[in-house]
From TrEMBL:
GO cellular component terms given for this protein: cytoplasm
Family: Belongs to the ornithine cyclodeaminase/mu-crystallin family.
Gene3D superfamilies in UniProt: NAD(P)-binding Rossmann-like Domain, ornithine cyclodeaminase, domain 1
UniProt cross-references to InterPro entries, sorted A to Z: NAD(P)-bd_dom_sf, ODC_Mu_crystall, ODC_N
Annotated protein name in UniProt: Ornithine cyclodeaminase
Biological source species: Galdieria yellowstonensis
Domain of life: Eukaryota
Short name of any one Pfam family annotated for the protein: OCD_Mu_crystall
Top-level taxonomy: Eukaryota, Rhodophyta, Bangiophyceae, Galdieriales, Galdieriaceae
Length: 317
């Protein structure tokens, strides 16, 4: 639903975001934002938490200044121990030249599409080219948008998906049946073995796979927990990787407690994805190289995508 406040401010919800934005466009917007980061035109500080005894507010802010886009803003969401039926997330977009509010987007869909698009950029630049087999561990909204983005940037021959919740897994398969050749498998190992791209998007605080299951030349997108005391990936995985990337070094380093890779002194240094996206030379995968992308949420990207959605909404008026 679209609302209009005073001063021409548009207010959009999840339904309008899905109507106005496709994943291919979101991937392109995020790719442009990461390129702007390389040039110093994207301001993207780590997220900020406001903590109370009842729950927290989490803010991610950012701005982009270039000849084509000049916006700034923030996304805020609450984290409370009890669930609620009301809205918990909002993204505010300001005109970068005047400081005037352009619009507000309510709901979780924009954030999920943004995270999926970041994953799509990583797959586009880091995974093997050509036809790919994909494995997906997890069946929530983050797994959904990661897979949609993967399909947008690669030719996918088949998808295997696993979740310990069989009914969730079956529903996920049904949702994607028209988009790809997708199969529910019985174990995490079945999902991980013999794939070119592995999407790990769980909320697990302990590893959901074993490193020995991975195929040579696999690319991994990890969306879930990465803390030293809670992580969805096995501790020895970084030691097997040839390259490790993230969308925000500053965000990764701001984790408290620290991220689990910091404890692996022999692992490759974590590099910023902008090094590859902003380079004139494409990333060269070595044979049998395992690459890992740690998605932590590059701030500012939700503002850039939100601005595009608002512009599309205004164009329909």
């Amino acid at each position: 639903m679209i609302f209009h406040c005073g001063g021409g401010i548009v207010v959009l919800d999840n339904e309008e975001v899905d109507k106005l934005l496709d994943m291919s466009s979101a991937v392109e917007l995020v790719e442009n934002a990461i390129t702007a980061k390389t040039c110093g035109n994207l301001l993207c500080p780590p997220r900020f938490r406001l903590e109370t005894s009842r729950g927290n507010l989490v803010f991610t802010s950012g701005a982009i200044v270039d000849p084509y886009v000049d916006v700034l803003g923030f996304r805020v969401y609450s984290t409370f121990p009890t669930s609620t039926s009301g809205e918990t997330q909002a993204t505010m977009v300001y005109d970068g030249k005047t400081g005037v509010i352009k619009g507000i987007i309510l709901g979780n869909r924009l954030g999920a599409l943004r995270t999926g698009a970041i994953g799509g950029v990583a797959i586009k630049h880091l995974a093997k080219e050509g036809v790919c087999e994909v494995g997906v561990l997890g069946t929530g909204i983050q797994a959904e948008t990661q897979l949609i983005a993967c399909i947008a940037v690669r030719e996918v021959s088949s998808v295997k998906v696993f979740s310990p919740n069989s009914s969730h897994c079956a529903a996920f398969v049904e949702k994607f049946r028209k988009l790809c050749n997708i199969t529910q498998v019985a174990t995490a190992r079945d999902c991980v073995e013999d794939v070119d791209i592995l999407i790990v998007a769980t909320n697990s605080s302990s590893p959901v796979l074993q490193t020995e299951w991975l195929s040579p030349n696999v690319h991994i997108n990890s969306v879930g927990p990465k803390f030293v005391d809670k992580h969805e990936l096995p501790e020895d995985l970084p030691l097997k990787c040839s390259h490790i990337f993230t969308d925000s070094i500053s965000q990764l380093d701001s984790y408290t407690p620290t991220h689990f890779i910091k404890e692996c002194s022999s692992a490759p240094q974590v590099r910023d994805l902008s090094e590859v996206v902003g380079s004139l030379q494409p990333f060269q995968r070595e044979k049998s190289a395992i690459t890992l992308f740690l998605s932590v949420g590059l701030s500012g990207t939700e503002v850039i995508i939100g601005n595009d959605v608002i512009e599309r909404s205004n164009a329909t008026l």
